[in-house]
Amino acid sequence: MELKNFSELMKKKDEEHKIVLAKMGESFNDARLAYASMMAERDALKSGEADLKAQIEEMRGYEEKIQTENAALKAQVEDLQATKTWMLSEGAELLTKNIHKGPEMTAAVAAINNAMSAVGVNSGLHNGYLHALKKKTPYADVLILNRNATEELKAAVACFDTLTFPVVKDLPKLIN
Hints:
Blueprint (H helix, E strand, L loop, with lengths): L1 H100 L1 H32 L14 H13 L4 H5 L6
């Protein structure tokens, strides 16, 4: 009887062991699936990390390009500011002087001067003729004679040559 009990006990234990072994097999399969899933996640993360590293390198290249372009633009702005400063401080004055001394201005002033001279000469001749007809007066006593005409002409030319324009002097104020 004891053998029979022992045999039944062993069968029972054998059944329990089979159940435990089946549960262990299930747990082992679950662990194997979890491991495979974790490895897939790890591979995906490594792939994502490689993508991120590639994107970071691409961004660094873009940043270097932007910095180079920014430096070039800063140099252009500085050059333009220097040009603006020169134009307002010296260029406009040089332009004005060139206009003042240019052949167009000279021709225009000469035309006016010649026309005024012709009018003055004609008027002087007319007045002199009328005066001579009325009475004879020595040349030195002629009242309309301007004995300083040559000096006055020289002074007028000097004034014209040193002519300044207030607007040109105010140009440097526009720099800022």
